[in-house]
From TrEMBL:
IF-3 binds to the 30S ribosomal subunit and shifts the equilibrium between 70S ribosomes and their 50S and 30S subunits in favor of the free subunits, thus enhancing the availability of 30S subunits on which protein synthesis initiation begins. Belongs to the IF-3 family. Coiled coil: none annotated. Residues 198-207 have a biased composition (Polar residues). PANTHER family: TRANSLATION INITIATION FACTOR IF-3, TRANSLATION INITIATION FACTOR IF-3, MITOCHONDRIAL. Pfam families: IF3_C, IF3_N. This is Translation initiation factor IF-3. Keywords: Cytoplasm, Initiation factor, Protein biosynthesis. It comes from Streptomyces humicola.
């Protein structure tokens, strides 16, 4: 079955509930009258609710309507954001420099609107000190609290301890901000016109 609505002479019903070009309700009219009005307005008669009794039809420029619908669908696909979960692994006794590096990655992921799964990996005797991992996760959550929140509290999973951070901003918002920032950077890189130097109007002195 075609997804395209029936238009003009493809509509096969004795009468329709007609909607005018500006959305005004015309009422129930014979199909012949609706087609006559469509010709007068130089528009198409488009069936917009085929299951209604009688079917609802609207006067519109169907070609323009299809084009605008396609553009809206394309823009929606462009802005569509899929939830992505990034993963970052840390050791309980992580070096300060490594911690800062890992935290930087977490910050970047949250700014992009992605969730981050933080995994603390315990080895050997470290497994008897789960509080080390818990404190590390708490510290990380506090360090990035302006960008994200604890979506899943720390919990032990075998030799690992896992916590999930969620971004405050939605993916679509983060993408929009990134595009705006990129546009601003491009605008800032455009060369500015150099001011013209004033020419000295005084005649040069003769030697």
């Amino acid at each position: 079955m075609s997804a395209e609505p029936r238009i003009n002479d493809r509509i096969r019903v004795p009468e329709v509930r007609l909607v005018g070009p500006s959305g005004e309700q015309v009422g129930i009219v014979p199909l012949a009258k609706a087609l006559e009005l469509a010709q007068e307005y130089d528009l198409d008669l488009v069936e917009v609710a085929a299951t209604a009794r009688p079917p609802v039809c609207k006067l519109m420029d169907y070609g323009k309507f299809k084009y605008e619908s396609a553009m809206k669908a394309r823009e929606a696909r462009k802005n569509q954001a899929h939830t992505v979960i990034k993963e970052m692994k840390l050791r309980p006794k992580i070096d300060p420099h490594d911690y800062d590096t890992k935290k930087g990655h977490v910050v970047r992921f949250l700014k992009q609107g992605d969730k981050v799964k933080i995994t603390i990996m315990f080895r050997g005797r470290e497994q008897s000190r789960p509080e080390l991992g818990f404190r590390l996760l708490q510290r990380l959550a506090e360090d990035v609290q302006e960008l994200g929140f604890v979506e899943s509290n720390p919990k032990q999973d075998g030799r690992n301890m896992i916590m999930v951070l969620g971004p405050h901003k939605k993916k679509t918002e983060a993408m929009a901000e990134a595009r705006e920032a990129q546009a601003a950077r491009k605008a800032g890189r455009q060369p500015q016109e150099e001011p013209k130097q004033e020419q000295n109007s005084a005649p040069a002195e003769a030697n």
